[in-house]
Amino acid sequence: MSTPKLKSAATSSQSAKAPENPVVRRKKLAAVRSVYSEAEREEMFRRFSIQRPEPKGELEHSNPFTLVVAVALSAQATDAGVNKATRALFKVADTPEKMLALGEDKVRDYIKTIGLYRNKAKNVIALSRMLVEVFGSVVPQTRDELVMLPGVGRKTANVVLSMAFGQATMAVDTHIFRIANRIKLAPGKTPDEVEARLMKVIPKHYLYHAHHWLILHGRYTCKARRAECEHCVIADLCRSPEKSCDIPAPLVELPPQVIGEGVD
Ligand code: SF4
């Protein structure tokens, strides 16, 4: 009779000590059913794809390095605010070497209109140094390497992998986190949970652009303060308790959004 008890105690103490396999962890995070059927999710993203056939990020950049810097600067700042500052900065420093040569004080001057600029200037110099010294001045193409760079977290790495290297990733920002929970597409308590669940419920063939579609939908229609359901193309499909309209907006391609119109 005592054997099972001992065995179970040993198992529980082992599992408390053993680090969880990351693949198992992501599977657990993703383990939730969307309230939408496969056909409804397909239809939802088909409509987003008609509205915005070629969605683009709004952060200006000229190469993977300037993209890393722009994304790192965009935390708690608007894309328009970052673009204003980086236009002049990237003219003089569009490679890690040039950024290092410019130095922290000058970088700080260029970006002082952006929130948290002191810390961000430090990070820009530190990440440039690491790129030169560790990565041969080339922006790495894996998430594990990208998050080694100072000031680069999982979200920034996902944006860079998607926009610079064409990988289907889901960088969960404030808009995506809100929409996933508000409309119950992939509810989760943390950005990691939402990311894992969205990666599972979004039809694979729509995954590459889904990140931008959801951000733009959140920025311009399903807004934080008031969801503009009367302008929403998925109003008939949406199961949000906050929904104020059941009639979908006409499904037409939208003109490009004005940079900086939305505030993150
Ligand atoms: S119907 Fe309203 S709540 Fe639902 S996705 Fe559209 S804007 Fe958001």
Describe the protein in words.
The chain is mainly α and 264 residues long. Among the domains are: 38-55 and 168-231, Endonuclease Iii, domain 2 (Orthogonal Bundle); 64-163, Hypothetical protein, domain 2 (Endonuclease III, domain 1, Orthogonal Bundle). 55% of the residues lie in helices and 0% in strands. It contains 13 helices and no strands. Helix 7 (104-110) crosses helix 8 and helix 11 packs across helix 12 (191-201). The longest helix has 19 residues, at 117-135. The protein is globular. The N and C termini lie far apart (60 Å). It binds iron/sulfur cluster.
Précis, in short:
By secondary structure, the chain is mainly α. The protein has helices at residues 2-17, 22-30, 38-51, 64-73, 79-92, 96-102, 104-110, 117-135, 143-146, 154-163, 174-182, 191-201, 207-220. The radius of gyration is 21 Å and the shape is globular.
Summing up helix and strand content along with how strands pair, one would put the structural category as: mainly alpha
Q: What small molecules does this complex bind?
A: iron/sulfur cluster
Q: Could you tell me the mean pLDDT?
A: 88
Which class of the domain at 64-163 in CATH terms?
Mainly Alpha
What fraction strand? under 5%
Distinct helical segment count: 13
CATH superfamily of the domain at 64-163: Hypothetical protein, domain 2
Shape: globular
- Biggest sheet statistics: none
CATH topology of the domain at 64-163: Endonuclease III, domain 1
CATH A-level architecture of the domain at 64-163: Orthogonal Bundle
- The percent range for helix content is 40-55%
Specify Rg, calculated over alpha carbons.
21 Å
